Amino acid sequence: MLGLEKKDFRLLMIVVVLTMLAPFILNPFPAESALGETFNAGYPDLMQRFVIFGIFAIGFNILFGLTGYLSFGHAAFLGVGSYAAIWMMKLVTLNVIPAIVMGVIFAGIFALAVGYISLRRSGIYFSILTLAFAQMSYALAYSVLTPITGGETGLQIKATDSPLLSNLEPGEIGRANLFGMDMRTSFELGIGDWLFTFNSGYYIAAVFMLISFYIAIRIFRSPFGTMLRAVKSNQTRMYYTGLNARPYTLAAFVISGMYAGLAGGLLVAMDTQAGPERMFWTASGEVVLMTILGGVGTLIGPVLGAGAIKYMENILSKINKDILHEWFAILPDGIEDFLVTIIYPFVGKGWHLTLGLIFMAVVIFLPGGLVEGGQRIARLFGRKKTKGDGEEATQSTPAE
């Protein structure tokens, strides 16, 4: 169905179910409980970031996962998409669709220019070139292009803005909407002690993420995707056969940049502001971590990696000493203080240490990322082959 093989369609349906039921899945504990206040992640802002940065990571994986070209400057396209979207909303309309479209277009044009130059080199030289472009973009947005970017304070919708196609009263601050539906509109459902929030902005971003995921599947399974894998496998051999790899890598770079622009446009649609910090090198490094943590070259891996990092950034970072003392209050004072002393460096402001340890463990023990970990667990619980089947498979498999 939808032009997908059975396995890919099943994977898409799993992502659809997980995305649509996220308000339930991300709120496993009662709202007023200590665990619920700490670990529940089903609130609109965080759910939106899960799917938006999932789009960012999916696009990056099309470049890095298929071609092997590691870009350290993808945050530049995220920033360009954000600035294009915010200006569309300030000047023309508060409808998020045109803003998102402009974000994708401008990011794609910028990616074409950057890719045309950067792809003249490969390996570490390509990575450094993309990093240089991103940092130059950040510097321009931060200082030189202040009239366009707002400099350090960034841009946001103000009372003085009067978009051409929006009927605002004098002094009224416009709000992002989808054909009149406010992005901040939410509906709360209470079931016993549980509270679930359904936000319009999240589901709009989720639909874009599902479309992006579907397109990524089609790219991965297409002849174009096969050519990109050939680039990663042995680009020199491709040239010997008469195939020019550069048009394929440039196309992958532009598509990846457009995904980043889509993510940037959605960020603006959700909070109607854009700043130069989205173009800083740490944002580019973050998407690299997301992709590697989830599983480079896999379909669902980047989405899992984005969710894991954003969860730790927003949940682990708010665990302080008071919360730890509440957890271990039942223990004797000496043991309680000891456990708090041991654990505290890994949470709160030290959540990056936990992320670093997890990243090291994944690189060393799970090169395929979280996806490989899931596959290993599935094999443990899967049906074991009988001894006869194993012998038959061994005998019928030729040596490689």
Automatic annotation (TrEMBL):
Keywords carried by this UniProt record: Cell membrane, Membrane, Transmembrane, Transmembrane helix
Subcellular location: Cell membrane
InterPro entries: ABC_transp_permease (IPR001851), LivM-like (IPR043428)
Organism the protein comes from: Roseovarius rhodophyticola
Lineage: Bacteria, Pseudomonadati, Pseudomonadota, Alphaproteobacteria, Rhodobacterales
Residues passing through the membrane, by range: 9-26, 46-64, 71-89, 95-117, 124-145, 202-220, 247-267, 287-306, 327-347, 353-371
Official protein name in the record: Branched-chain amino acid ABC transporter permease
Main location: membrane
Membrane found in the keyword field: yes
Family matches, as PANTHER family: ABC TRANSPORTER ATP-BINDING PROTEIN, HIGH-AFFINITY BRANCHED-CHAIN AMINO ACID TRANSPORT SYSTEM PERMEASE
Keyword Nucleus among record annotations: no
Membrane topology: Multi-pass membrane protein
